[in-house]
Amino acid sequence: MRYLVYLLVIANLAFFAWYQANPVEKPRQAQPAPLPPGVEKLVLLSERTAAVADTAVDEPQETVAQADAGAVEPGVEAVPDIKVEPEAEPEPEAESPAPVIPAPPPERICLTIGPVQDKNAAAGISAQLYKHGYKPEVRDDEVRKPAGFWVYMPSMPAREAKRIVKDLDQHGMKDYFIGKGSHISLGIFKSKRKARARLKRIKDLGYTAKLDPRFRTRTVYWLVIEEHGPSLPDRAFWQEIQARYPDIGVQPGECE
Question: For residue 11, is it within any domain?
Fold first, then answer.
């Protein structure tokens, strides 16, 4: 066994001596292919840093200082100096003129003329207004007007009505008639005093009667115009109309 160890030691020494006498050749570095004209050589970041360091050592101190002033961190491109012009102050804006607010239209005033009792009279007044530049609108209206006083007995059975009028005949009262529903009309009076006298006479005979005012429905006419120019009551033609129809008047109001 000991001889085997000696043999291995001797073999190792022989191999070492042979290796030192015949060193292994380094592999040839591949040469880069020539670049086409106009194409710059690609420089690695590590090679660029080393080249800058070598240049800094060879240049004088003043050159190195100048290089440091414009040096940038590796991998960052230098930004050229840009002159910043002072920002011009904005010109003051011209004040816009105040908005013009149009004047409100003049208020319209309309006049209502009437009441005119007759349709022909309303047509004549309308023609006069047209002649003087107005455009009247004629409107009709139903009105109730007092038409005297009525003395009567309300509706009752027909037999009772006949008995009462027979008794009135015996007492000299002939102005009556039996109406619809067997009511007994005892007279229509323009004067309330006369109506009350008839009512008292009926009560003196022992009967109950009533006194009510009577009304008549009739059509009247109104003329509506829009006022313009001189006031209508001050115009000469209107004063002539007023003298002919003294019952009509003029009422101002809003236009519809």
Answer: no
Quick one: three-class SS letters along 224-245? EEECCCCCHHHCHHHHHHHHHC
**Structural domain containing residue 114:** 109-254
E-assigned strand segments in 89-136: 109-116
How many domains does one find in the chain? 1
Tens of pLDDT along 24-63?
555 555 565 665 666 566 555 566 655 555 554 444 444 4
Q: Give CA–CA dist 52/72, Å, rounded.
A: 12
CB 151, CB 186: distance < 8 Å: yes
| Residue 18 domain flag | no
Q: Is residue 220 part of a domain?
A: yes
Pairwise CA distance, residues 112 & 208, whole Å: 47
Helix or strand run (H / E) with residue 249: strand 249-254
Between helix 61-70 and helix 45-58 the angle, nearest 10°, is 140
149 strand-pairing partners? 189, 213
Q: Is 84 contained in some domain? A: no
Sign of CA dihedral 117, 118, 123, 125: negative
